[in-house]
Amino acid sequence: MNPTDPGPTNPADEGAGAGETPSEVKQITTEALKDAVADPRHDLAATERLVRDYVKILKEQGFRPDRAVTEAKALVVEATGDPLSSILASVESWTMSVFNNV
Question: b or e along 81-102 (b: 16 or more beta carbons within 10 Å of the residue's beta carbon)?
Fold first, then answer.
């Protein structure tokens, strides 16, 4: 292990166990998601990965699936600034696949 390595570049990979509070994890993930959706070469797979990783953290923290869907949708709305974002249609299936271990 390299002591100068800054660690994972995906904020959700760091997890809430790395000293971040749930609100810090949400803030970090929101910023990463903002960057992902603002990229002119927007990659939906990268967006999906960020949302799924965030939902995994919520699951580890004991969130129920319905609450995790609500939180994940709020994350996407905050990141996109669009309460009607086309990404929202996929958030529920992404969330449920995490809870169903798909």
Answer: eeeebebeeebbebbeebbeee
